[in-house]
Structures are given as structure tokens and as C-alpha cells.
Amino acid sequence: MFRLAWAILLCLSAILLLAVPTLSQQAKPAAKVDESTISKSEPQDRPSKIISHEDIDKQKQKETSSINVLPPDAFLLKAVAQEPSKTTQQPGGNDAADLSKKLANPVASLISFPIQTNFDFGMGTGSGWRNTTNVQPVIPVALNKDWNLISRTIVPIIHQGNVVAQGTSQSGLGDTVQSLFLSPNKTEPFIWGAGPAILIPTATNDFLGSKQLGLGPTIVALKQQSGWTFGGLWNHIWRVGGRSSRPRVNSDFIQPFLAYSTKDGWTYTLNTESTYDWTGKSWSVPIHFVVAKVVRLGKQPVSFGGSVRCWATSPAGGPEGCGLRIVVTGIFPKK
Length: 335
What we know:
By secondary structure, the protein is an alpha+beta fold. The protein is built from four helices and 15 strands.
């Protein structure tokens, strides 16, 4: 804006410098000719003055010097002010700040493919450990201009040792949780989504899952303002089928979160992913402080994040102390 105003001011100055001499010449009255002083013997029609090439060159130099009142780069500044630079990336839906903000929103209209790896320790008799890699694609579908349907799937891949008994280990899939959120395509007064949560017994080992089919409601609500994202996600799942010999699935999942995203793509998040087991009457409460950054690998935007994962409480034989979380998220913005 400053460059545009400066260029306009200089252009106006040039116009005035050119116009003032012309106007002064037009306004000056013509000198009155005393016909009596004209010699009768002098011819009335004088021959016109012959203009040489030297006079033409002098006139061109004069005109050039009168026009060139702008600095040499004034026209370039004016052109830059009128036309955005092609080498500068214009703000848009794919920049790092916008993508990090959308990643902080569980029901954003953005296809993402997070792979989250968690390391927990102190399990079983104290020497047990567990590595859980959650593959959790998020796929939004626009139903119409007012509503979106967001699919969030969590497929755990588990490898653990010394948890069931000393010197033993188990590996395989855990139970899958599939959530569907119906969400309006607006952000005021806040963002929300609601739908069903389904527990699917996909565990490949009896010690890695419940062997039960579960169903219940899930709700998410959040607000985004000035780089901040705060809100919470909740679901409750009851058993609707599966082995009756196993402890009955009846649990709440509560995830409050607070995140701050910077203009250069960094996001700092504090959350907890708490579960209350109504059958066992016990809490599992891990607390996370996550730092993530959106970068580009070629043209592909990717988010890399890491977190300390500390357990405030867990059931008997559950994780203790602090572990780690590493998250890599592929981001696929709409074209």
C-alpha cells in the first residue's frame, strides 16, 4: 500500500511538472503587434524556419529530461504494487499455519493419515512394556454445502512383552474403533460434530482385545480463535455382542485438549486421553504435551510430532511413569 501511494504521488508530481509550463504558456496573453512598426517594404509572409536534425535531437533531450522526474525504479515499484509477485507464495488453504490449525480440529474438512506410535513401560509386574502403533486415517465427505460427514478410524498394531507373564510377548492387531461425525460446515459460535462410535473386535490375540462388539455415541466440540484451539471429545461404548466370558465393555473415553498453532506451522498441544472402565471401576489417565511442525517434502505437506506421555493413574498392571509418543501425519488438502 505504501509503495502504491508513493508511485501515485510521483506520477502526479510528474504530471504537474509537465502541465504547469503548458498552462502558463496558454494563460499568457499574446503580445500586441504594432502594425505601424512593420515596414511596408517588408514582406507580410515570412518563410517558415527550417528545422534541422540537431534541433530535433535537442527537443527530444528536452522532453526526455522533463519526463524523467521519477526515480529509475518508480515504474517498477508501481508495477509491483499493481501485480503480486509470482515468486512469493500467496496465503492460501495449503500454507503451514492453516494446515496446522486444521490438524488441531478433529472434524476439519481435511484428509489426513496419522501414524501414531506410543511407548509405555512399567506394565505387568513392573518390567512389562508395550508398543502401540495407531493407524488412524481421517476422511471427510461433503454431504452438501451445509453438512460434512467425517470418518475417523483407529487401528492399533500392538507389540508387548512381559505384560501377561514374565518372558512372554504378544504381537498383532488390537480392536478397531470407528467413529463417524456429522458436522455442520460452519465455525460459529463453535465447531461441533456428533455420531456413532463402534468397537470392532479385530484383535488377533486374546490378550490384545476384548473380543466384543461395542456401540455408543460420540461428540466433539471445540473453538478456534487467534491461533488457539480448545475443546473436548467424548464417547461411551457398551457391549452389544461378543464373548460373554470376557469382562463386559462399558467405558467412557474423555479427551479434553488445548492447542496453540503459530504462523510458521508449529503446534503445541496439551491433552489427556482418559478412559473410565465402569466394569472394573478404574481410570486410565495418560497426559501428553505434544510439539508438532508442518513441513513439505517436495510438494507433500507432512506433520512431524513428538510427546512425553506420562500416566497420572492406571489400573493394576497398567503403564506407570512416563513413556513417549511419535506422530507422523500425511496431509492431503483439497485441490
